[in-house]
Structure formats: structure tokens, C-alpha cells
């Protein structure tokens, strides 16, 4: 794809993402995206053919950052629970500050209103969490009654719900996630000592959201 066409597609994607965050899928029209991006409706249809295709592109762009986030926490010698916590903060930052990630999350929540199959990242999230919890158990760092695969499903569901409600409760996202882990680790660790583990994990969080998207200004 030529650079100009690639830049146009990116501009349309980010304009659509801003509007999907602010208005949702149903509340956003092709004309709205045209006005916001400064591109014609014809340009939008040329690159994406429909609002559904554009929405799916936003969702896929969000989920495309997932392997990059995982890769950031694969360093050898780092305790697996520390990796899991750091990964959650990386995902949390992306869902809080990256406009495409925020839009993808909202579109996924509104997936039943989109007339196309909507992909989901949760299978990959559960597999990654299961692997890290299993490693923690092998190292004696997981409570004896915690089964990794079942715990991973619970953690992913609870974490995503926590992020989805972030705009509806007071406080900064990082502080809320810190408190969430303070509670969770008391169930996961055999001898709970969550504070130092969380502090070490937070030193591994990237300074900026992973991926090329702009940060959301709201």
C-alpha cells in the first residue's frame, strides 16, 4: 500500500475511533466520520466500504496490540506473577489512554448492534494468564488451592469488567488497578505480600501505550 493511502486509512481509523468513543457505534455515521476526518464519504467507502468494516478495523487494530503487549513482558528471570501484574497495567494503560483501544473496547461492548462477526481477544488473554499462573505454581508462588486455568478465566473477566467501568467510578485508573491487585493477590499468593510485588511490576510498565495510536485527550 502506498504511503499516502496508508496515511489516509490511518486518519480515517483514528477519526472513527474518536467518534465511536464519544458517541458509540449507532450514534456515529459515515458523514460524521467524514466531517471529523476532513475526508470525503467517497474516500471512506473506498478504503473501508461500510461503517461495519471500519468498526471492525478499529477492533482489530486494538487487538493487534495484544501480541506486542505480551512480548514486552517475556524477559527471563522475572517472576511470573510480576509479569502478569505488569501486563495488566500495560493493557489498562492502553484501554485508558489510547483512543483506538478505547474505541475497540466500546465497540466490542456494542457488538450485538454491529451487523458483522466481531473478534474477541479473550481467548489469548486467558491462555497468557494461564501460562503465567502455571509458572507461578511451579515456582511455589501460587496458593495451593488455586487452579491456573480456572483462575485465569476469573481474572480476565474481572479485569476486563474493571477496565470497562473505569469511566464510571472515581479515581485514576492506575490507582484503581493497584487496589484491585491488592485484593486479588491475597487470594493468589501462598503468603500474601502484594505491595512489594505490585511496586516491582509497575516499574516494568511502558511509558506510553503500545502501538501507533494517539492518546485519547479526554
Count the DSSP helices.
10
Based on Cα principal axes, name the global outline.
Answer: elongated
Estimate percent helicity.
55-70%
Rg calculated over all Cα atoms: 19 Å
Helix and strand pattern: HHHHHHHHHH
The computed structural class is mainly alpha
Note down, in words, how this protein is organized.
The two termini are 32 Å apart. Helix 1 crosses helix 2 (30-37), helix 1 (3-23) crosses helix 4 (51-71) and helix 5 (80-97) runs antiparallel to helix 7 (122-138). The chain has helices spanning 3-23, 30-37, 41-48, 51-71, 80-97, 99-109, 122-138, 148-164, 173-188, 194-202. Helices cover 67% and strands 0% of the residues. It is mainly alpha-helical and 218 residues long.
Question: Can you give me a brief rundown of this structure?
Answer:
This protein is an all-alpha fold and 218 residues long. It has helices spanning 3-23, 30-37, 41-48, 51-71, 80-97, 99-109, 122-138, 148-164, 173-188, 194-202.
Amino acid at each position: 500500500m502506498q504511503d499516502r493511502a496508508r496515511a489516509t486509512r490511518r486518519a480515517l481509523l483514528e477519526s472513527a475511533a474518536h467518534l465511536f468513543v464519544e458517541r458509540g457505534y449507532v450514534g456515529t455515521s459515515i458523514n460524521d466520520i467524514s466531517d471529523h476526518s476532513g475526508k470525503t464519504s467517497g474516500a471512506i467507502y473506498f478504503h473501508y466500504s461500510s461503517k461495519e468494516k471500519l468498526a471492525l478495523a478499529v477492533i482489530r487494530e486494538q487487538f493487534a496490540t495484544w501480541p506486542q503487549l505480551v512480548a514486552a513482558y517475556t524477559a527471563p528471570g522475572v517472576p511470573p506473577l510480576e509479569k502478569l501484574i505488569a501486563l495488566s497495567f500495560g493493557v489498562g494503560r492502553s484501554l485508558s489512554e489510547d483512543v483506538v483501544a478505547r474505541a475497540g473496547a466500546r465497540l466490542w461492548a456494542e457488538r450485538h448492534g454491529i451487523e458483522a462477526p466481531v473478534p474477541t481477544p479473550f481467548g489469548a488473554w486467558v491462555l497468557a494468564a494461564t501460562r503465567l499462573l502455571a509458572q507461578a505454581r511451579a515456582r511455589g508462588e501460587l496458593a495451593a488451592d488455586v487452579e491456573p486455568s480456572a483462575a485465569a478465566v476469573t481474572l480476565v473477566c474481572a479485569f476486563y469488567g474493571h477496565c470497562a467501568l473505569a469511566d464510571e467510578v472515581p479515581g485514576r485508573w492506575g490507582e484503581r488497578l493497584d487496589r484491585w491487585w491488592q485484593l486479588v493477590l491475597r487470594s493468589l499468593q501462598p503468603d500474601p505480600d502484594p505491595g512489594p510485588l505490585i511496586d516491582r511490576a509497575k516499574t516494568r510498565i511502558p511509558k506510553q501505550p503500545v502501538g501507533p495510536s494517539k492518546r485519547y485527550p479526554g
